[in-house]
């Protein structure tokens, strides 16, 4: 299906609003043309009456002038109202639809997209698509229908005039805008590319402004932005010149049409087939016929950007989620024994394997620390358990493969605290309630206390209503991580996976955290991913060592001393 058809199908539910806006816009346009034509006729007639040349019916044209004037003014107002209403509904529909498509894609199927770029591009693309109706389709449809009506009306006055007017209108209303957009398609693509690069550079510069200042990179970034802006401005100037030329040609065409009207009118008067008022009316009609065509060059210059935005949005929306729920999902049994057999996983389709045949048994109630050098694949294992990436091999819980279970069911059994958790630009309360929307303040305070944030909460003037800022910008790394732990504790999951929970914490707080977590998760399984082995014996009973995507050793912490060669360099266990 081509992009126009898909876009049209998508906005189908708004067709009532779109049709209403079209009807009103056409009414306003025809009323405007009618007003000019009847006024021309009326003024010329009145002049002739004044010169004593004729007597006329004064009331009908005067009433028509008033009617057209009212319709034009009212129509324009209602057209704006309905047009913008239709556009906003289209925007809401497109945003909702795209959001629904993108969420299942994250993060695996969007792995190669930079977050800032994706965000800025989507915002801009959806805004561009919004113009497809109000900025392109509506003016084109109104211009086409108005032209047909003008030509039919002209036929009643002069067949010759209609015949000669038609090609001029077609040239100005169809050929000119089409030629303009075809000629400047490259410029439009360049403007589009530069705008996207500029937006991404801006987003990066804002997010990484501290680094840029520390490393003195502001000048380099300024220079890059200047180059991009200059390129974009040059393309815009070329496109503007093209637009100005098209506008000038359009004005020239209306002059030609006026000349034709006068020529044919004068000839008609000589042959007594037309009178003075008829000539004035034809002249005004010729001029007014170009009014609906005036927005077309600008409207059609948007086509390339709209097409590019639509193709990008559809390409993204058409991606298949890397992990999707099975067609016929199986329920998880009550048992919570986790077993991994020969599990292989990578982050991108043709990328390096991050897990290379992992075998791991985690019987219900087991508390295990997963240690190993950086890049060994520990966090990847956590992602796998969160059903965020596809894997090969077998991962079962209670004997049922997680592939056969709905991701939501898996996440109700396995709560994961990411190494770099994400906090939303919302209050502390809202960030916690993502995990348990019905949790009351007492429950939130309780899990915050387990996460050793009781004092922190106590010192906040706005308590749970405190705004944490975009990605928890107002919090320290350690506070963010503990907030994420508190969030995970709200889900009473039988298996808790903690990725570096003590990172950024002083030794005393880390020890208190492990102790509180041990009490809180009594009877449940814990998988603790960590580099810092100090104090872990409070929380876990066993240690597994991971290297190059495999588990290479496993030891009972309370029974044996861990083989030093299998621990990351510099690590030492102190119970
Ligand atoms: N999103 C990603 N896309 C591509 N490759 C990734 C991604 N995340 C991790 N990797 C790669 O996968 C491998 C395993 O990374 P992982 O984060 O699981 O290691 P880790 O043992 O948790 O390391 P650390 O202790 O430093 O957190 C690494 O080679 C890493 O570069």
From TrEMBL:
Q: Which stretches make up the ABC transmembrane type-1 domain?
A: 19-305
Gene3D superfamilies with a match to the protein in the record = ABC transporter type 1, transmembrane domain (1.20.1560.10), P-loop containing nucleotide triphosphate hydrolases (3.40.50.300)
Is-annotated flag, keyword Transmembrane? yes
Residue stretches making up the ABC transporter domain: 338-573
* Record-annotated membrane-spanning stretches: 21-43, 49-71, 132-153, 159-178, 248-267, 279-300
Q: Which domain of life is it from?
A: Bacteria
SUPFAM superfamilies per record: ABC transporter transmembrane region, P-loop containing nucleoside triphosphate hydrolases
Question: Looking at the keywords, is GTP-binding present?
Answer: no
A Pfam family recorded for this sequence = ABC_tran
Q: Which NCBIfam families match?
A: CydC
- Per its UniProt record, what PANTHER family does this chain match? ATP-BINDING CASSETTE SUB-FAMILY B MEMBER 10, MITOCHONDRIAL, ATP-DEPENDENT PERMEASE MDL1, MITOCHONDRIAL
For this entry, the protein name equals Thiol reductant ABC exporter subunit CydC
What organism, scientifically named, is this protein from? Luteibacter flocculans
């Amino acid at each position: 299906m081509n992009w126009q058809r898909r876009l049209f199908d998508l906005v189908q539910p708004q067709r009532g609003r779109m049709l209403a806006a079209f009807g009103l816009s056409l009414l306003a346009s025809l009323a405007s043309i009618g007003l000019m034509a009847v006024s021309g006729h009326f003024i010329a007639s009145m002049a002739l009456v004044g010169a004593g040349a004729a007597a006329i019916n004064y009331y009908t044209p005067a009433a028509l002038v008033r009617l057209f004037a009212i319709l034009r003014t009212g129509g324009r107002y209602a057209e704006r109202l309905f047009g913008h209403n239709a556009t906003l509904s289209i925007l809401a529909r497109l945003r909702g639809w795209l959001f629904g498509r993108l969420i299942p894609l994250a993060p695996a199927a969007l792995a190669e997209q930079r977050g800032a770029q994706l965000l800025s591009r989507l915002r801009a693309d959806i805004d561009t698509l919004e113009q497809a109706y109000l900025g392109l389709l509506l003016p084109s449809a109104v211009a086409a229908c108005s032209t047909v009506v003008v030509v039919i009306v002209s036929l009643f006055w002069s067949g010759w005039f209609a015949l000669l007017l038609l090609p001029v209108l077609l040239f100005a209303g169809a050929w000119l805008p089409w030629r303009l957009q075809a000629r400047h398609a490259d410029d439009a693509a360049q403007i589009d590319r530069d705008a996207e690069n500029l937006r991404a550079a801006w987003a990066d510069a804002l997010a990484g402004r501290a680094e840029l200042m520390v490393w003195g990179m502001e000048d380099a970034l300024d220079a890059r932005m200047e180059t991009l802006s200059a390129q974009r401005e040059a393309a815009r100037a070329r496109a503007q010149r093209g637009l100005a030329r098209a506008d000038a040609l359009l004005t020239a065409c209306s002059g030609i049409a006026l000349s034709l009207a006068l020529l044919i009118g004068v000839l008609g008067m000589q042959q007594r087939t037309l009178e003075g008022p008829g000539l004035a009316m034809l002249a005004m009609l010729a001029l007014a016929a170009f009014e609906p065509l005036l927005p077309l060059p600008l409207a059609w210059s948007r086509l390339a950007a709209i097409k590019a935005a639509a193709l990008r949005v559809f390409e993204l929306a058409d991606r298949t989620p890397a992990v999707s729920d099975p067609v016929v999902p199986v329920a998880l049994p009550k048992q919570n024994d986790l077993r991994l057999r020969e599990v292989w996983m990578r982050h991108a389709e043709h990328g390096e394997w991050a897990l290379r045949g992992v075998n791991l048994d985690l019987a219900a109630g087991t508390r295990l620390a997963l240690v190993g050098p950086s890049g060994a694949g520990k966090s990847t294992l956590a992602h796998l358990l969160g059903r965020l990436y596809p894997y090969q091999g077998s991962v079962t819980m209670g004997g049922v493969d997680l592939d056969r279970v709905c991701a939501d069911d898996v996440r109700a059994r396995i709560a994961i605290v990411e190494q770099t958790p994400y906090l939303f630009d919302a209050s502390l309360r809202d960030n916690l309630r993502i995990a348990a929307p019905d949790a009351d303040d007492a429950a939130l305070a309780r899990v915050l206390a387990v996460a050793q944030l009781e004092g922190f909460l106590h010192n906040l003037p706005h308590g749970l209503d405190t705004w944490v800022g975009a990605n928890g910008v107002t919090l320290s790394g350690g506070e963010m991580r503990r907030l994420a732990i508190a969030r995970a504790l709200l889900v009473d999951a039988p298996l808790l996976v903690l990725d570096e929970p003590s990172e950024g914490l002083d030794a005393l707080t880390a020890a208190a955290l492990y102790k509180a977590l041990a009490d809180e998760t009594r009877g449940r399984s814990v998988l603790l991913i960590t580099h810092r082995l100090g104090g872990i014996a409070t929380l876990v009973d066993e240690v597994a060592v991971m290297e190059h995507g495999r588990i290479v050793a496993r030891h009972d912490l309370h029974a044996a001393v861990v083989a030093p060669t299998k621990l990351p360099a510099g690590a030492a266990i102190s119970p």
